[in-house]
Amino acid sequence: MKHYHYIFTGSGLSALMTVYEMILSGKFQDKSILLLDANPKKTNDRTWCFWDTENNFQNLAHTKWDVAWFKTATFERKLDLKPYQYNMIKGLDFYNLVFDLISKQENIHFVNQKVVDFEELGDHCIVKTASENYTCNKIFNSIFSSELVKSQTKYPLLQQHFVGWFIKSKEAVFNKDIATFMDFSVEQKGNTRFMYVLPTSATEALLEYTLFSKELLSKSEYENEIQKYIQKLGITEYEILEKEQGNIPMTCYPFWKHNTKNILNIGSIGGWTKASTGYTFKNTTKKAKQLVQFLATDSDFRKFHKRDKFWFYDLLLLDILDKKNHLGATLFSSMFQKGNATVIFKFLDEETSFLEDLQVIWKCPKMLFVKALFGRLFRF
Predict the structure, then answer these.
(1) Which of its termini does the chain have fewer beta carbons within 10 Å around, N or C?
(2) How confident is the model at residue 14, as a pLDDT?
């Protein structure tokens, strides 16, 4: 069996971002690294969006916006995002960037095989694929297991699930300089439902019908709602250039408790997804940097994770949406209707002081969070 210092079981965003940061650090050239995945990452299978004030991956961004709409059935607000920019990155562009960098590293290898099992055996680990076995010192696992969350009731599990169409319309109905961050004017149907609209020209845009809820829909339900929205925009003729769909787990379940000395869960199964919003790209960028710094000083993966105040804020919001999913539009609207957009984005990026936290939290329906707080205190 071939032996490596590090094996990544899965090569999604968290694995590729961590390898990217490892390469940039220049501190792992003497370590052999293997990435294993059944998906060769050769297609544009997803889109990531994030807001940023720095130049992190902004050169890779397909489109950027300085202004965004927030809409509901009763009001709409144009948000000046400065000093932030809202960025859209195509999955294939990111894959190509990282794999091009990997191809230049003699110590890093990618093997197109599906991982079927892995385990820790004392001071080393073994990873099994459908055709071969490998050993290593450390495993970074990003293969998500919903059973860990579904087998308990202490921490709720919602899904951010969506279908997106990138369309080209006959009519010039889009303003390429303004994204629609969330449009809650779509029928809620007892859930938290909204539309993203990310225009790239006057006639082209990505429209993504998104829910924060427990249950998924049939594919036709998502697509019917996108068609309704297209008609609402006044579009009579269009072609679908690309489609995408996804499902991001939203939970505060303490996945880190399943880390061992030599196996670290990363990505969604490591709690790297922002639980209250499902945003992944920016959070993963931060976590990957923290992990690379950690590897330089410690080798016990049980010490990596640190819980903070934002984890608790997210937990309270998920507790509310778990029991009253129809109130999602009300909760997000309360923040964005009169709140300072810059502070809100800073809060969602988990970079605010406690006083800034209060600026955002006090805009929300207070009794909902007070009840959630007392309910949560009895569940710890």
Answers:
(1) C
(2) 97
Cα atoms found within 13 Å of the Cα of residue 162, Cβ hemisphere only = 27
pLDDT of res. 299 = 86
pLDDT of res. 366: 86
Q: If you ran DSSP here, which 8-state letter would residue 62 be given? A: S
Could you say which residues of the chain have pLDDT below 50? none
Please indicate, yes or no, whether residues 165 and 214 belong to a single structural domain of this protein: yes
β-strand partners of 36: 9, 111
The per-residue pLDDT for range 6-40, each reduced to its tens digit, is 999 999 999 999 999 999 999 999 999 999 999 99
Going edge to edge, which strands form the sheet with 76-80? Answer: 76-80, 67-71, 178-183, 192-199, 204-213, 157-169, 238-251
Residue 30 and residue 113 in one domain: yes
Same domain, 115 and 176: no
Per-residue CA distances from 87 to 18, 55, 110, 281 (Å)? 20, 11, 28, 10
> Which residue from 114, 94, 61, 92 is spatially nearest to 244, judged by alpha carbons?
92
Query: Residue 231: which domain range?
Result: 157-250
What is the pLDDT at residue 306?
A: 81
* Residues 118 and 259 reside in one and the same domain: yes
Q: What's the pTM value of the predicted model, to 2 decimals?
A: 0.92
The full DSSP string for 72-118 is: -SS-EEEEE-TT-EEEEEEHHHHHHHHHHHHTT-TTEEEE---EEEE
> For position 29, what pLDDT does the model report?
95
Q: What is the pLDDT of residue 380?
A: 60
For 13, counting Cβ atoms within 10 Å of its Cβ (0-12 exposed, 13-18 middle, 19+ buried), the class is buried
CATH code of 133's domain: 3.50.50.60
Q: Are residues 229 and 176 in the same domain?
A: yes
